[in-house]
Amino acid sequence: MDIIEKLKEEHLKIRTILLNLEMHSRKGSVDTDGILFNLKSLYDIWDKHEEKEEDIFPYLEKRGINVPVQELRFEHGALRRHRERIRAALISGAALKIEEIINLDLNIVIAKIREHMNKEDSVLYGVSWESLKEKDLDEVKRIVERG
User: Fold this and answer.
1) Exposed e or buried b for every residue in 27-50, given b needs 16+ CB within 10 A?
2) 49: helix, strand or coil
3) 17, 80, 47, 39: CA torsion to nearest 10
4) How far apart are CA 144 and CA 53, in angstroms?
5) How do residues 13-24 score in pLDDT, each as one tens digit?
6) How far apart are CA 42 and CA 11, in angstroms?
7) Is the pLDDT of residue 102 over 70?
8) Cα–Cα distance for residue pair 123/25, rounded to 1 Å
9) What are the C-alpha distances in Å from 100 to residues 86, 94, 96, 120?
10) Chain centroid, CA 81 distance in Å
11) What is the gyration radius of the CA atoms in the chain, in angstroms?
């Protein structure tokens, strides 16, 4: 599978889960089970996807491709902090806390993930893949296809 197509496929799966999370977290009809299910799905995909990015982007940067590695890493950390707040609230079972976190953190996480993926897409689609050496392409492909 083409490198870009594989990453686009992962981004599409993540975007679909984000839509499901929005649907399950609408005010007045919060579906905690639906949110938990979709968060687990998101975390399963996101964790593996993030690991790949943590390897791919610095690798591309070392090959002279303009990648905002530090910015992307900072965003990954910020997203993890929001994610942990959401998880802790859902585990607590406190209805008021859950509603507060869903109304604040979940919506922030959804928006930030979308924004983050748009940045990644602009980097990935801007890469002149043909300009990379075959061994570099093989290494990036190996990273993308793992997990």
Assistant:
1) eeebebeebeebbebbeebbeebb
2) helix
3) -30
4) 8
5) 999 999 999 888
6) 11
7) yes
8) 31
9) 10, 10, 6, 30
10) 13
11) 17
Angle subtended at Cα 147 by Cα 77 and Cα 115, rounded to the nearest 5 degrees: 35
Burial class of residue 101 (count of CB atoms within 10 Å of its CB; 0-12, 13-18, 19+): buried
Query: What percent of the chain has pLDDT above 70?
Result: 95
Residue linked to tokens 């997203």: 79
Residue 87, CB-side half-sphere exposure with 13 Å CA sphere: 10
Helix locations, 63-130, DSSP H? 69-92, 95-101, 107-126
Residues in the chain: 147
Token match 């109304």: residue? 103
Question: Which residue ranges make up each domain of the chain?
Answer: 3-145
Q: Rounded to the nearest 5°, which phi and psi values hold at 31? A: -105, 90
- Confidence category of residue 1, pLDDT binned at 50, 70, 90: very low
Reference 3, options 137, 116, 113, 118; nearest CA is: 137
Handedness of CA 33, 114, 111, 29 (dihedral sign): negative
Question: Does domain 3-145 match CATH 1.20.120.520?
Answer: yes
